[in-house]
Amino acid sequence: MREWTKHHFRIQLFRARSASMSERLSSTPSGVRLGPVELIADGAARNFVLEMKAGRFHGFAVRSGDTVHGYVDRCPHMGLPLAQQLDAYLTGDRALIQCSWHGALFRIDDGACVGGPCTGAALTPWPLEVRDGAIFTA
Questions:
Q1: End-to-end CA distance of the chain
Q2: CATH number for the segment(s) 2-137
Q3: In the 3-class helix/strand/coil scheme, how is the chain assigned residue by residue?
Q4: In angstroms, what CA-CA distances link 113 with 9, 60, 63, 104, 116?
Q5: pTM for the full predicted model
Q6: Cα Rg for the chain, rounded, in angstroms?
Q7: Average pLDDT of 118-123?
Q8: Mean pLDDT over all residues of the chain?
Q9: CA distances from 133 to 34, 41, 54 (A)
Q10: Residues whose CB falls within 8 Å of the CB of residue 8, separated by 6 or more in sequence, listed in order
Q11: Which residues contact residue 63 at a Cβ distance below 8 angstroms, ignoring those fewer than 6 apart?
Q12: What is the pLDDT of residues 69-96, one digit of tens each?
């Protein structure tokens, strides 16, 4: 029994360290180059995970022409990531961002919830800018 307790303690300690190392962040430093604007097809969305010393940032970007809107990948309703499938952030007609868990709908240009369980709330913006044909954190 004593052996099990020591082993159990080590596992818990490791998990506690791992949790702090992979803490989910809600912002990124400015000036990080994410890639060329063509990385995201016009009218489409793409997810980004940035591994930093303090933890991981999960965000996504939606491209509309030369404009890119970025948001933290977290629904204000339940705090879950919006997409259950990679890069599947938009409605079928690509007019709105949609949470795949509970169907909340958000405007692309400002992240405001316009339908579903979190009406009146908004996605957390992730400031992005396009410079010299590339997407950067702002």
A1: 54
A2: 2.102.10.10
A3: CHHHHHHHHHHHHHHHHHHHHCCEECCCCCCCEEEEHHHCCCCCEEEEEEEECCEEEEEEEEEECCEEEEEECCCCCCCCCCCCCCCCCECCCCCEEECCCCCCEEECCCCEEEECCCCCCECCECCEEEECCEEEEC
A4: 44, 16, 19, 7, 8
A5: 0.82
A6: 18
A7: 93
A8: 86
A9: 11, 13, 29
A10: none
A11: 37, 40, 41, 42, 43, 44, 45, 46
A12: 999 999 998 889 999 999 999 999 999 9
Ramachandran area for residue 55 (φ above 0: left; ψ -120 to 50: alpha; else beta): left
Q: Could you tell me if 104 and 91 are in contact, meaning their C-beta atoms sit under 8 angstroms apart?
A: no
Strand partners, 49: 58
Q: Which residues of 59-96 are buried (b: 16+ CB within 10 A; e: fewer)?
A: bbbbbeeeebbbbbbbbbbeeebbbeeeeebbeeeeeb
Q: What tokens were used for 67? A: 């404009």
Tokens of 54: 């303090």
Listed by start position, the domains of the chain span 2-137
Phi-psi region of 42 (alpha: psi -120 to 50; beta: other; left: phi over 0): beta
Residue 29 tokens read as 């430093």
